[in-house]
Design a protein that fits this description.
- This protein has 5 helices and 32 strands.
- It has about 475 residues and is mainly β.
């Protein structure tokens, strides 16, 4: 018997569905007007139609740009675009204009738009170059080396295409329809263009051509925290393509055996899926990053999807976790359910009731809160409840044996001290002998499989002093 889809259960139980949450996102386009945007260069026209910004070419015009009034440095940008197959277009990021006099700007005569541009163009028979980064009106031309501009099948002609652009320091990453396209680090362009406006390009066309149109909708941005972004270099633990650097350990199987293809990469995200299971039967699993860490800030984006696996525990509906200060998968026995570790428990709401996330659970471990050792298995955070299937971002600040903090949307929701092995647990006592004592100052990071499908889109680590 199949479970009802979780989304259907929510609708049956809650006619007034509570918001699906995406922390930190701001809509750049309200779907109705061009408020917050200004045109620079060219004579192409821009209008709002059916909830989209539609740009139309004008014969003989140079490249035209509709740009945001605000400037942005480190950010994540998402939008959908549909472009006439005969037209080349793009979205400017961190862009600027050549200096113009106050009188020229007052008259609307902006200087030439220049900076990185994410390419929008139709696919040819051998694929598309959409999604690669070009240096509009810069000395570089393509910012991506010729050998790295590989045509791909991800852009769909005459359809809405979803773009995702992540800018952090000199690194720019792009995805189209969930598929990774470009991963560029360019120190020179970052030195001259560390921040700037977002711009929607209508490319110039020759005489006796057109008119052609390009449309954008659902344009939104999430600004990254400047203090964190500038504190050091973020390390992506997940490359967006495969599970290189990770080792699965599933109860009943040896380390490295990925039973049922439980852990996989789908549309640029790590997906935990159970379509290869007839029944869950307490086959708890964890995907371990191969390198241990001690002092760091970990940023994870997750969301729950689909139906719980048949015979999964009732408490495990929309339940997963990130384990830190853990043992290695090789130290676990074949039938061990959870690694001795500190678990940052990730929970999703049911559409009606309060259910915090970024909680604490302690398999084989204990912590200290307010100078008192905590022996209970789980401790709730002070977070709000996140219903629906939106992406949620959780940060985990780990300072060795001193303190661990759980952070959502810049706010601390839980903290504790002195993570340590639990001397009441036989396996933990064995680990303590090899560890040199009960106190934990570092260990593995792993992502949890507890019977409800979940995706992890981003797993980034910032080393701390």
């Amino acid at each position: 018997m199949k479970c009802l889809p979780w989304s259907l259960l929510l609708l049956l139980c809650c006619p007034m569905f509570i918001h699906a949450y995406d922390a930190g996102w701001v809509e750049l386009f309200n779907g109705e007007t061009l408020d917050g945007w200004v045109q620079k260069n060219g004579t192409a026209t821009y209008r709002v139609e059916d909830g989209a910004i539609v740009g139309q070419t004008t014969t003989g015009s140079p490249n035209s740009f509709l740009t945001t009034v605000e400037n942005y440095g480190d950010f994540e940008l998402e939008f959908e675009v549909k472009c006439d197959n005969r037209l080349n277009s793009g979205v400017q990021i961190r862009s600027q204009t050549v200096d113009a006099s106050d009188e020229e700007e007052a008259a609307g005569n902006w200087g030439r738009v220049n900076g990185p541009q994410c390419e929008i163009e139709a696919a040819a028979d051998d694929g598309a170059l959409a999604g690669y980064i070009y240096g509009e009106a810069t000395e570089y031309g393509w910012l991506v080396a010729d050998a790295d501009r590989i045509r791909h099948p991800h852009y769909k002609n005459e359809e809405w295409n979803h773009y995702r652009i992540l800018c952090e320091g000199p690194r720019i990453q792009t995805w189209i329809n969930g598929e990774p396209v470009c991963d560029l680090t360019h120190e020179e362009i970052y030195e001259t263009h560390p921040s700037g406006f977002i711009g929607l390009q209508v490319h110039g066309i020759a005489e006796n051509e057109g008119p052609y149109e390009v449309a954008w909708r659902n344009i939104r941005i999430c600004v990254l925290d400047d203090e964190q972004a500038n504190a050091g270099e973020w390390i992506p633990l997940f490359n967006g393509r495969d599970l290189t650097g990770w080792t699965p350990k599933i109860r009943g199987y040896a380390a490295g055996e990925n039973f049922g293809d439980t852990f996989r990469v789908v549309d640029g995200a790590i997906q935990v899926n159970y379509d290869g299971y007839d029944s869950f039967d307490e086959q708890f699993g964890h995907l371990f990053y191969n390198e241990p860490f001690s002092n760091y800030l970990l940023k994870v984006e997750y969301r729950f999807i689909g139906d719980q696996c048949p015979n999964g525990p009732g408490w495990a509906i929309r339940n997963s976790g990130v384990m830190v200060h853990g043992e290695s998968p090789e130290q676990m026995s074949v039938d061990q359910d959870f690694p001795a570790s500190i678990e940052v428990q990730l929970l999703g709401g049911n559409g009606t009731d309060d259910r915090t996330t970024a909680n604490l659970c302690t398999p084989g471990t204990n912590v200290v809160i307010d100078n008192r050792i905590i022996l209970q298995h789980c401790t709730s955070s002070q977070s709000e409840t996140y219903h629906g299937d939106g992406w949620v971002t959780v940060e985990i600040e780990v300072r060795g044996n001193e303190v661990i903090r759980h952070i959502i949307d810049g706010e601390e929701v839980l903290s504790y001290n002195q993570p340590q092995l639990d001397d009441r647990d036989a396996h933990a006592r064995e680990l303590a002998e090899t560890n040199g004592g009960l106190q934990l100052s570092g260990g593995t990071i792993s992502l949890q499989s507890e019977s409800h499908p979940v995706e992890f889109r981003r797993v980034d680590l910032l080393p701390l002093e």
